[in-house]
Fold this protein.
Amino acid sequence: MSLYPGDRGGVHSLGGGGPVGGAAVVLRDRPVAPRAVVADAATGSCADTVRSILDTALLAEQLAVAFYYGGLTSPAVLRTGGLGGASADPNNPGLPPSGNPHHVRYLQAALDAEAKHAAQLIQAGATARHTHFYFPAGIFSRRGTSVSPNSFLGLLERLESLQVSLYTTASAQFLHLRRPDLAVQAAQIMGVEAEHRSLGRIIAAILPPNNLTLESPPMTCVAEAEAALQPFLTGRRYLFASDATHATALPSPAQIARVVGKYGTRRLKRFL
């Protein structure tokens, strides 16, 4: 599975080059048809279980935690226009015209949300299996843009698009597995991941950042997401501009708290 973007008539896929948009998972270079999800959910042909879905979702969340933490602690990413400017401190970013504290706070809140998602999944029964993740060498060396594959914002676009597809599929699978409580939780998390993707596009000055009427077709089974995440676990078979990779450790809660500072997220107990 490729992690490159591509335009397919207004629906953004992970298998070619083109304008930025919402990403659909592509298998064998073809977008998954929406009806395939309905058919598999109805027949139970997926091998997904409650535990396997939770474990895959946790894997994606922990990867996102390592990714956002890596970006917020990388001077090469922060010391760019539109983020920290001359400052490499996420809690004291530079001011306009070179710096943009609001954009840095978007990333701090995203890191905080991903860490809280991971904690929720562990509470629901997910098992953590990895402490390090591999990223292409250029990811933390430049901010880039949402349509630059080998850049921080380029990978942000692709990881968040994968998570949107993962949680959309997970919600349907949880319903099939008679766990409506987890289906609701998956839908709640999916909405936040879509927000992260749009905020990444805002940082990249993509106009409009909310350019989809409907989210792209999801994957057929959640197990497909774990296959797409394998290069980040092994450091092999990257489909980016460079095959060189480096390992990034999963940060501790204390490390995350220091980087997030006071710009974290909150959980709503009820909706008005």
The first strand starts at residue 6 and ends at 8. Residues 152-176 form the longest helix (25 residues).
